Amino acid sequence: AHRGAGCAVACVFLYPFAGEPALPLGPDDVVLGGVEHHPLDRVIGFDPFLTRRVRAEITRFAPDVVQVNGGRTLKYGALACRKKHDGTALVYRNIGDPSQWGSKGGQRAFYRRFVMPRLDGIVGVSDATLRALGRLFDLNVATQRIPNAVDLTTFRPVRSRDAVREELGVGLGAPAVVFVGSLTSEKRPDLLPAVFGRIVASFPDAWLWVLGDGPLRTNLERDLRETGLANRARVLGTRTDVADVMAAADVLLVTSDTEGVPAVVLEAGAVGVPTVATRVGGIPECVLDGQTGFLVAAGEVEQIARAAVALLGDEVLRDKMGHRARGFVEESFGLTAVAAEYLRFYERILEARAARPS
């Protein structure tokens, strides 16, 4: 979106992405080939060789703004943007719960001393993430909530609901719930077999579709087999047709213990699918409880299943919530509007930086 607005943009990826599909690289984009969980991370808190490569890319591109996305990139951006880059403003985009990376004593001291003082601005994808960040660190810079966005011009189904269901071997009228996300501990895919088991008790012809991959995939597939649900579930891995599969489902399930503003909720809304989600992080800012979906307590299998059953059993309610979700996403989370908010924030911090005494 920033490129479309006339900005020159370079994306620097710290680590290679092993799965498919990876993001396409532009002419100025680069993958640095760092090693996640490098031994030096444990010893001194960061990899100085990777820091040097980040610094070289900043020098090469000479940007007005360096934006770092997420806690892992934050420290490398701060360490790489040294004083010699006087013309470069550093913005941190906080996308989740900072206690995941900044609450331990040694880590917290490191970030307080060497990282946070180098920031010129902070964007939180939700008010909740900004509040959580403020509980850990003194935020003595400009802050602003700017939510995640969905590109409504590109995220739309290509195939029909019937075609997707035929491919997956699912009846056209069978209830289907979908989970989309990385199969990692914070997303709680371990809850899905128990939740889905309760859904099947009410709707024996129901289906579960899981889009995503990660270290807990083997455990999830095992649990589905052991609970006798494997023949009603499709663990589909990472796919390029997320919009198609979402639009062919009836309800999106989000079972996470921690979140910022999950893009999957916005994507589900964009295709008119209501969400049942845990009330964590910024989710209440993108799921309007009782209007675009239902919010439940984290970890509560019965509540998650009960909300999903209520939607699956009431087509009128489901359609009404899906319609409201689409309108809410179009109004509040469209890519063009969100990109404009970022540009205004950049201008604000650059003006403040220029006004500082030399």
What key attributes describe this structure?
358 residues; alpha/beta; six-stranded parallel sheet; four-stranded parallel sheet; 14 helices; 12 strands; 42% helix
Question: Describe the biggest sheet?
Answer: 6 strands, parallel
On the 0 to 100 scale, the average pLDDT is 92
Structural class: alpha/beta
Amount of helix: 40-55%
Tally of separate helices = 14
Low confidence ranges: none
- Tell the overall outline: globular
State the end-to-end CA separation. 33 Å
Report the portion of residues in β strands: 5-15%
Tell me the number of strands. Answer: 12
Strand order of the largest sheet: 9-8-7-10-11-12
What value does the Rg take, in angstroms? 22 Å
The H-and-E topology, N to C, reads as EEHHEHEHHEHEHEHEHEHEHEEHHH
Give an account of the 3D structure.
The structure is a single chain. The mean pLDDT is 92. This protein has helices at residues 39-44, 48-61, 71-80, 99-102, 105-115, 127-136, 161-168, 192-202, 217-226, 242-248, 263-270, 301-312, 315-332, 335-355, and strands spanning 12-13, 30-31, 65-69, 89-94, 121-124, 142-145, 176-180, 207-211, 233-237, 251-254, 275-278, 293-296. It is globular. It starts with 11 loop residues before the first strand and ends with a helix. The protein is built from 14 helices and twelve strands. The strands form three sheets. The protein has a six-stranded parallel sheet, with helices on both faces. A four-stranded parallel sheet has the order 3-4-5-6. Helix 7 crosses helix 10 (242-248) and helix 11 (263-270) crosses helix 13 (315-332). The protein is α/β, with parallel strands linked by helices and 358 residues long.
